[in-house]
Amino acid sequence: MNGNAQSVRDYTYALAALAGQAPLSLNVVYCPPAPYLAVASHMLPQNTRLQLGGQTCHAEPAGAFTGEISAPMLADSGARYVILGHSERRAMGESDDAVAAKAAAALATKMVPVLCVGESLASYQQKTTLATLDQQLTLLAPFVAAGALIAYEPIWAIGSGLTPTLEEIGAVHQHIKSVLGSETSVLYGGSVNAKNAKEILGLPEVSGALIGGASLEVASMHSIIRAALGA
Question: Quick one: pLDDT at residue 231?
């Protein structure tokens, strides 16, 4: 929940220029706040490489859900991806079942769901990370088979400046792929920044990154995109 119309215009223009320099194998997706999706969409040049996404959606396509935004509305505003089950949304009470229902809605609208999974600090300390993830992944497996992406975000690392070790990141991503299939695209999200992006994205199990606070500055994103190119 950051920015305004002008900052979104400026950011979209700059990020589209960066994305245009990337090879076809690298996808760059920008997920601005929902009120500014159309603003961002109008700023994109023809044949742009930058794609847009939403930060969440409702499970129903329409109805008496004041304040919510549906998957068709996101798609109509220019979104091709949507983040679902982000830790901040889960902290507000979003359940595994709700994430699954939203994933079905997104796929029905031909958007790509980015399904977030992760463990709390207590789970990490008790060494129950994999069991926690398995519980979340069970409901999400059918959507991954239909084209959804998985984003692993250790909740305790988000916004804390802390990150798991490279060995831990690789092991968790490998486990997710063992559950969902080796071809599953698994992104890492948990305090990814310009300083650690290259080594994290260099892990063979990591397919990309879900960037949080570090994405607020174009200069930071420039460094992260360069890191992705060198991974």
Answer: 54
Strand segments, DSSP code E, in 71-206 are 79-84, 112-117, 149-152, 186-188
Confidence of residue 13 (pLDDT cuts 50, 70, 90): very high
- pLDDT single digits (tens) 127-185: 999 999 999 999 999 999 999 999 999 998 887 777 799 999 999 999 999 999 999 99
Cα–Cα distances (Å) from 158 to 102, 162, 224, in that order, read: 23, 8, 17
Q: Is 97 exposed, middle or buried (0-12, 13-18, 19+ CB in 10 A)?
A: exposed
Tokens, residue 111: 């958007």
Cα angle: 76, vertex 77, 78; to 5 degrees:
90
- Which active-site residues does the annotation give? 86, 153
Token pair of 57, please?
Answer: 């959606």
Q: List the beta bridge partners of residue 209.
A: 188
Domains in the chain: ranges and CATH? 53-230 (3.20.20.70)
